[in-house]
Amino acid sequence: MKSRILAVVAALAVTSILGFADNPRIIRIGYAGVGSGNRPIGGGSYANIQADWAAIDNEFKADGIQVKHTYFSGAGPAVNEALANNQLDFAWQGDLPALVAKAGGLPTKLILANSRYDAIYVGVPTSSTAKSLEDLKGKRVAVFKGTNLQLAFYNLIAARGWKDTDFKIINMSTADGNAAILSGDIDAQVTGPDIFPLVDRGVARIISDTKGRPKESRLSHLLVVEGFAAKYPQIVQRVVNVSLKAAAWNSDENNRGKAYQIWTKSGFGLSAWKGDHDWIKLIYRESPLFDEFYRTQYKHLLKTAIDLKLVRRSFDVDAWLDDRYLNQGLKDLKLENYWPQQNAEGKPVR
Fold it and tell me: Does any domain span residue 345?
């Protein structure tokens, strides 16, 4: 009996040291975006696959832990506000808002890459005479400021030696920009795959995009609040492992059509996802790895954001990208060699 008591005490001591003694009553997860018509669902990556499966909810059901999913029509900036107000523990978010938050002092860690090579599209009304970006100089261009659309657009024009002041930039959400395209209140909009339904309807044309140009693409990720991770490392690991299972499924070409169908629940049809994804293998697009490309690109984006005065100060990107949970999850699930590493140019190294 005495030996059993001592064993229990020892186990409790280890548990206390590791922070495993208690579980949270609730896990709060934010998503930087909504579907068509403001519906609380998204599309375009494995983050949306795991949400459709209710994978995280099911993982913690037996523990009696509630999982709260919140979708923000205000995208990344709204997620940052929720993080600042201690309303989230995890967030699926894009590059610029996360950089702004970290540089501003929000204690976050990136724990999984989500999507990469996310293109932006510059759309104009079909009645427009514009055929290229140069034709839009001095014109009204809608950009959802504070999101990764903004930083990608600035990278796009900077690569041509232009500045944002060469255009009349108007801050608009993607949904408002779509409406403004239809009404003719703007000359162009910088957007994601939601431009394709407008193209299908014959009311918009795409005059520029960043497909196939990794350094002009957008990044997204899963982040965790540092305090939550310090208190509940075992919970963070389970969230990562569940998400990696969804990433592996979504990276399988045999599941491409099924993934597209799941993403249509966002309200955007097949044309949006085919137009945005058919050009690249999913094993590259859905990689959760913090490989050379992902790290190099985040450093490049941080420097660009600082140069544009979108971010206040620099910080250590390598320390911010915390790969401990990722590496353990890859080992747990025997996925160490599933995704190819990609070099700084975005090319696979195996």
Answer: no
Rounded distance between C-alpha atoms, residue 340 and residue 348, angstroms: 6
What are the E-state strand segments in 12-120? 26-31, 66-71, 90-94, 108-113
For the segment 211-245, what is each residue's pLDDT rounded down to a tens digit? 999 888 999 999 999 999 999 999 999 999 999 99
Cβ–Cβ under 8 Å, residues 95 and 320: no
Residue 128 Cα to chain centre, angstroms: 32
Could you please report the per-residue DSSP string of 205-224? EEEEE-TT-GGGSB-EEEEE
Q: Is 286 helix (H, G, I), strand (E, B) or coil?
A: coil
114 neighbors 45 (Cβ within 8 angstroms): yes
Q: Which domain holds residue 255?
A: 2-116+218-332
Among 288, 243, 337, 261, which residue's Cα sits nearest to residue 116? 288
178-221 per-position pLDDT tens digit:
999 999 999 999 999 999 999 999 999 999 999 999 888 999 99
What is the rounded distance in angstroms from the CA atom of residue 246 to the CA atom of residue 71? Answer: 19
225 in the same domain as 99: yes
**Is there a single domain that holds both residue 26 and residue 105?**
yes
Residue 318 — left, alpha, or beta (φ > 0 → left; ψ -120 to 50 → alpha)? alpha
